[in-house]
Write a structure and sequence with these properties.
With 903 residues, the chain is mainly alpha-helical. It is built from 43 helices and 11 strands. A 5-stranded parallel β-sheet has the order 6-7-8-5-9, sandwiched between helices. The protein has a two-stranded antiparallel sheet with strand order 1-2.
């Protein structure tokens, strides 16, 4: 039986339905007897009352018979004995409640408030509403309901008392109960204590005063001694209220609206919340805003700034001084605990005293009911129950808004660039905005890269640590252990972040063991000086990186660490060549491009250092030459050509390295449209390679030279080189370039008019590249098959090839391949009479080639494009230019998606 709600009856076979209320009432009355027999006269009185009834015993027996029938197979549980009726049934919910009451009594005797709280919660969960709610009209039920309501109320009180002792937020439950029982002294006292724990002492004393007045007016009695003692204690605590002393904030707070909402909800309940972030990121300002919000809502707020304190200082005494209690006695912490219930305590700048702060906060939170502690620190406290909120840079929009608000200038591209250069850090932006009093926005934008020297004048009331960007970083740097300082300055050579393996390769030496690097980087992440993403890649914000590089120069380590970084970059480039275009089993894949894209800032940083401060131009060739395909993908061919020319001035002539550099320069030059220059560079490189007997190098130069000859419409020299490539690659098992050789022979034959033979070679090249999963090569061969089909007038087949090539090129982010396919698809659409769509495709491809500076190189393709462009212009007239102008505003990936969706 379940009685704490509408009556439920169940057996091992499931729920039973007893329709007649009197039959259910009989079952309940017998169940409450716990198996004992109940005399007929008692049952008759409890079920029908004292009103006279004809033949009451007979009526009882009929009722018992109906109950037995309703019980079905369990009918034998109802028994008739000389002493009366009995029922073999248990009130399972009531039994559990009574067992919980016993557990609560035992736990109270030992002072185990957690056990009281849990047992009361379990018991209260048994109520499903009003007890015996479906039997209100039965005479004995009213008294039983009163008894059960009393048990429920005692459980609610036990739950509330234990919850307050444990620092739990039971205020809403107590408010609900006080509304139902406004003169219940224990409940009103508990609700007053809950209000005081939330810092609302005035409201708490007012509630007790109202209770005292109401008891006298309505009942003519005084409150009990416990209530009077509680009222006196709250009056005393109100008289000794905390001195709230928030730091001044004269300027508006900008940004972080969502963070504020989330944090306000967090600190509204007893908790420990740590705002963790790097120097200058705005932790103190955010904490000040949260604290001010709580203060406006009537909560007591205290502020403890740890910045002036040093290791060994007495934190409890500092806290007492901050809140205005006695800090000179034997136990200043106890004095603080007496006045902190329900308060919000902000502990600012904790990173340099993190262990002592953790101990203080842990003690306060455990001993002070309703206390919330909000900590700002570059490191987490790492105590039980702590919630750590990572405070990062502002969003770009909020950063620009902050700069404009502080400088009085309108939004502009220069403002956005300045904020980005400052990592969107509030401190740096405030300092930069202040400089607009003496510098124009253009002057500031031009100088912002020298941020450490530039941002040196903060507000006088901002404190020493926030007076300049350098001061904020100095504070963090001085807190580091010696080896952590070494790690920070050395890892700053990585312009685009790094993996742990890369860091171990570059920063470890006899002063910093490899096995120590991971722990040191983790420590720097914990101190908010480095970041780490979900893949385990470490990053360093530009302001902190500048500071680290300055430290590297100061200690005289820059040249050594930079050379190690360059050596690591040459390994990255070599891997990019091996797995990108020359590996026999992998080929170009999207993950390789993504990897090089991540490392590009490091590669460019190494090139820049080699060509400037480092004076190591020969090393540039080792970084740039293996990745000519990648620079083409990235539209950086002009830059790559310049790097290679600068590098070759320091490489020994007639060496394989010089020839490789010449060949790389020839490839880049050809892609830039300077075909004759590329041919001469290739011939020079080939002469050197033949003398050095470098098989693979010779094949690479021959392949590059083939394409230069083709671009110059010198078909027979191109055919000779392409055939030699095909022969060489079969001899040395070089399938990537064998596919290239086959493809180039096909191009020669196509241009000589042998279309069918060219198609067979393109198919063979496609199969060769596809077998080694070379997406780049697959796109080239498939695109050439599409061009051949187009030239043969097989438009549907041509479209099928080109859409296949376009999709693969899109998937591996091969920009040139996408442009090639769009051009051929434009020719196909024009031939099919869809001139406007053809104009879109031709304009998109033309604009894309202008951006990456890589023109079409194969003569018959150049002629096809020129003829189609002229034909479509003749059909559309001025509309062609309108379509082209509109198309140029659409990103390439959107156009490709549109084409593939259209099919």
């Amino acid at each position: 039986m379940r009685l704490l709600g509408a009556v439920e009856i169940a057996t091992g076979a499931g729920q039973l339905t007893v329709q007649q209320p009197l039959a259910r009432a009989l079952a309940v009355r017998l169940t409450l007897a716990r198996g004992a027999a109940v005399a007929d006269e008692i049952l008759i009185r409890d079920l029908w009352g004292d009103a006279g009834n004809a033949r009451p015993t007979a009526r009882l027996r009929v009722l018992a018979s109906r109950l037995r029938g309703a019980l079905g197979n369990e009918g034998e549980a109802l028994r008739r004995t000389p002493a009366g009726f009995s029922l073999d049934a248990a009130p399972v919910d009531l039994d559990l409640v009574e067992h919980s009451v016993d557990s609560i009594d035992a736990a109270r005797r030992t002072g185990d408030q957690a056990a009281v709280f849990d047992a009361a919660a379990v018991a209260l969960e048994q109520w499903r509403g009003e007890a015996l709610a479906d039997l209100r009209e039965i005479p004995f039920v009213a008294a039983e309901q009163l008894r059960l309501e009393s048990v429920q109320l005692e459980l609610e009180i036990a739950h509330g008392e234990a919850g307050l002792a444990l620092g739990k937020d039971v205020g809403p439950d107590l408010e609900r109960l006080v509304a139902a029982h406004p003169l219940h002294e224990r409940l009103v006292g508990l609700s007053a204590r809950a209000l005081a724990n939330r810092g609302m002492r005035a409201e708490a004393t007012a509630r007790l005063a109202h209770l005292r007045t109401t008891l006298a007016d309505e009942l003519g009695i005084d409150p009990g001694p416990e209530t009077l003692a509680l009222e006196a204690k709250l009056h005393e605590q109100t008289d000794r209220a905390i001195r709230s002393s928030l730091p001044p904030q004269t300027k508006s707070f900008i940004g972080r609206q969502d963070e504020q909402l989330s944090l306000r909800a967090r600190v509204s309940e007893p908790s420990v919340v740590t705002l963790r972030g790097g120097p200058g990121v705005g932790k103190t300002r955010l904490a000040r805003e949260i604290a001010e919000s709580a203060h406006r809502e009537g909560r007591t707020v205290a502020w403890l700034d740890l910045a002036p304190l040093q290791a060994g200082d007495n934190l409890p005494s500092a806290l007492a001084a901050a809140i205005g209690t006695d800090g000179g006695g034997p136990n200043p912490l106890a004095n603080a605990i007496e006045v902190l219930p329900g308060a919000l305590l902000v502990v600012d700048n904790a990173e340099h005293l993190i262990e002592d702060t953790a101990a203080l906060v842990d003690d306060l939170h455990a001993a002070t009911a309703g206390l919330t502690v909000l900590v700002t620190s570059q490191r987490a406290l790492r105590i039980s129950g702590e919630y750590v909120h990572r405070v990062g840079p502002l969003t770009a929009e909020a950063a620009a808004e902050l700069f404009c608000a502080r400088s009085g200038l309108p939004p502009s591209d220069q403002v956005d660039a300045i904020c980005a250069a400052l990592d969107c850090f509030p401190l740096a932006i405030e300092l930069a905005a202040g400089l607009t009093r003496i510098l124009s926005i253009d002057q500031l934008a031009d100088r912002i890269d020298d941020r450490l020297r530039l941002l040196i004048r903060g507000l006088r009331d901002s404190g020493a640590r926030h007076s300049s960007l350098r001061a904020a970083l100095d504070w963090s740097h001085e807190l580091l252990a010696p080896k952590a300082r070494i790690a920070l300055r050395r890892v700053s050579v990585f312009a685009g972040g790094c993996t742990l393996a890369a860091a171990e390769k570059v920063i470890a030496d006899d002063r910093l063991a490899v096995e120590e690097v991971g722990g040191l980087l983790t420590d720097l992440v914990d101190r908010s000086l480095l970041t780490v993403d979900s893949t385990g890649r470490y990053g360093v914000l530009q302001s902190i990186r500048d500071y680290g590089l300055e430290q590297l120069r100061t200690v005289g380590e820059e040249a050594t660490i930079r050379r190690r970084h360059v050596a690591w970059c040459t390994e990255v480039a070599a891997a990019g060549e091996q797995y990108g275009r020359l590996h026999s089993t992998h080929g170009l894949q999207r993950d390789l491009y993504s990897y090089l894209n991540l490392e590009e800032p490091n590669l460019l940083g190494a090139v820049d250092w080699c060509l400037s401060t480092g004076a190591e131009p020969a090393l540039v060739n080792e970084i740039v030459a293996p990745l000519t395909w990648y620079w083409g993908y990235r539209g950086m061919l002009t830059e790559a050509a310049g790097w290679l020319r600068d590098s070759l001035t320091a490489v020994p002539p007639d060496s394989p390295q010089y020839a490789a550099g010449l060949n790389a320069l020839a490839i880049v030059t050809r892609k830039l449209g300077r075909f004759a220059e590329a041919r001469e560079l290739g011939l020079h490189a080939l002469a050197i390679m033949r003398r050095t007997d470098e098989a693979r190098g010779t094949i690479q130069v021959l392949q590059s030279l083939t394409l230069a000859y083709l671009a110059l419409d010198e078909i027979y020299p191109a055919l000779v080189c392409a055939n030699e490539v095909e022969v060489w690659t079969r001899a040395v098992d070089f399938p990537v370039l064998r596919g290239a050789g086959l493809n180039c022979i096909g191009l020669c034959l196509r241009m000589l008019g042998y279309a069918d033979d060219a198609v067979k070679l393109f198919e063979e090249a496609q199969a060769c590249w596809d077998a080694i999963h070379d997406g780049h090569g697959y796109v080239i061969a498939t695109g050439n098959l599409g061009i051949s089909a187009y030239q043969a007038g097989e438009l549907d087949r041509a479209r099928e090839y080109e859409l296949d090539a376009l999709e693969v090129a899109r998937d591996i982010t091969y920009t040139v391949g996408q442009l090639d396919s769009l051009e051929t698809l434009g020719c196909i659409e024009a031939a099919a009479g869809r001139y406007e769509f053809a104009a879109e495709l031709l304009a998109a491809a033309s604009h894309g080639r202008q951006l990456i500076v890589e023109p079409v190189a194969i003569p018959d393709e150049v002629m096809d494009l020129a003829a189609t462009d002229e034909f479509v212009r003749s059909k559309l007239g001025a509309r062609f230019d309108d379509i082209a102008a509109a198309t140029r505003r659409i990103p390439l990936d959107e156009i490709v998606r549109k084409v593939l969706d259209r099919g």
